[in-house]
Amino acid sequence: MLFKLCGLVVLGMLALGGMVTHLVAGPDDWWWTSRTEVRERMQEAHERALEAREQARERIWEARQRVRDRVREAQQRREMFREEARRRREEIRETQREWRHEFDPVF
User: Fold this and answer.
1) At CA 42, angle to CA 59 and CA 40, rounded to 5?
2) How far is residue 97 from each of residues 30, 86, 93, 105, measured CA to CA in Å?
3) pLDDT tens-digit series, residues 42-95
4) 27: buried, middle or exposed (CB in 10 Å: 19+, 13-18, 0-12)?
């Protein structure tokens, strides 16, 4: 009997506490605060995603710029080597012409 009476008192206290909470906080207050928190978290996540996307774009742009620079340097090196080879060929041709001019009448 005492067990039933203690259970009834505990149940009454829980019900009374629930009613007081319901009257003080309002029935939908927890729902709106929860929605507001979720909305704020979503907005923060969206801002972080936008910032991450912008950083990724910057990294990609910088990588492309580095590739362009390397290609430009390689082109300049090739052009320099071509000019050097062209200059050497001209020197060889000029030397051959001089030799032909000098030694051709002999033979």
Assistant:
1) 120
2) 99, 16, 6, 13
3) 999 999 999 999 999 999 999 999 999 999 999 999 999 999 999 999 999 999
4) exposed
CA distances to 49, 53, 77, 93 from 82, rounded to whole Å, are 49, 43, 9, 16
Is the model's pTM score more than 0.70? Answer: no
Distance between alpha carbon 66 and the CA centroid of its chain, in Å?
Answer: 16
Backbone angles phi, psi at 105, to 5 degrees: -65, -25
- The number of C-alpha atoms within 13 Å of 86 and in the hemisphere containing its C-beta is 6
Tokens standing for residue 65: 């710029």
Cα 77 to Cα 84: distance, rounded to the nearest angstrom: 10
Q: Scan for tokens 């995603």, then name that residue.
A: 49
